[in-house]
């Protein structure tokens, strides 16, 4: 299933989405260059989110040496940076496709600033959740999956029954259909089983290690729905 558009008329250009898509593509091309030169593994292991490194630094800072908070601060940069790294062609294509189809309507509804806050905030908080859930994990976690899940959650809160123009690939034939938006709540999780397709060579990660765990993404969905409810409520009060 490939979502194409929701046909909801936009009152303003999705400027933030343009920037996010451009930045993600540019960084992925840089990753591809590093893979060709054999430097990608070191790059991802330096800037990807590795829960064990952060949890270990926090434990040391609390129990042994307060100066270790400097290390915690340095490692915490990966909470932000990991959102802009991807482990495969299928992962970045899937994420950016969902960002475009569902994100442009959300940005149009809540505004550029709030949309960016939702995207970055959800990405960081789902990453923190991953550290709490798997504090000993030593495999780098990368991808905007948590942030995209939040965008999808925000969209579904407001437009659960809107029809999404969809293409169903059947061998070499592409069948156009319309699917209700809530269908993509389930498809979002199913499609990630295929995120290993076109994987970059990032040792020691496995096929699915480039995406945040499903529990983290479920948190993202709930955050997006809650954020949309708050945004709509505050907007109605101002009106």
Automatic annotation (TrEMBL):
Membrane topology field: Multi-pass membrane protein
An annotated GO BP: proteolysis
Alphabetic keyword roster: Hydrolase, Membrane, Protease, Transmembrane, Transmembrane helix
Domain Peptidase S54 rhomboid: 74-228
Top EC class, one word: hydrolase
Annotated EC: 3.4.21.-
GO molecular function, one term: peptidase activity
Record localization: Membrane
Transmembrane segments: 15-32, 79-103, 115-133, 139-157, 169-190, 210-232
Name under which the protein is recorded: Rhomboid family intramembrane serine protease
UniProt source species: Nodularia spumigena UHCC 0060
């Amino acid at each position: 299933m490939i979502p194409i558009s929701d046909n909801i008329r936009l009152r303003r250009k999705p400027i933030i989405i343009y920037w996010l898509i451009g930045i993600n593509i540019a960084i992925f091309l840089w990753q591809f260059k590093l893979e060709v030169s054999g430097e990608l593994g070191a790059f991802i292991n330096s800037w990807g989110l590795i829960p064990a490194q952060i949890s270990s630094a926090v434990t040391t800072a609390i129990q042994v040496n307060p100066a270790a908070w400097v290390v915690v601060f340095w490692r915490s940069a990966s909470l932000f940076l990991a959102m802009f790294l991807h482990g495969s062609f299928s992962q970045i294509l899937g994420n950016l496709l969902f960002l475009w189809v569902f994100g442009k309507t959300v940005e149009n509804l809540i505004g550029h600033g709030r949309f960016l806050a939702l995207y970055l905030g959800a990405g960081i908080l789902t990453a923190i959740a991953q550290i709490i859930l798997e504090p000993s994990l030593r495999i780098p976690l990368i991808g905007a999956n948590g942030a995209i899940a939040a965008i999808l959650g925000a969209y579904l809160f407001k437009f659960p029954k809107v029809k999404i123009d969809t293409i169903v690939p059947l061998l070499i034939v592409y069948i156009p259909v319309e699917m209700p938006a809530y269908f993509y709540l389930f498809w979002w999780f199913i499609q990630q089983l295929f995120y290993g397709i076109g994987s970059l060579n990032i040792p020691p990660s496995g096929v699915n290690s480039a995406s945040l765990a499903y529990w983290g993404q479920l948190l993202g969905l709930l955050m997006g729905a809650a954020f949309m409810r708050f945004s709509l409520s505050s907007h109605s009060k101002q009106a």
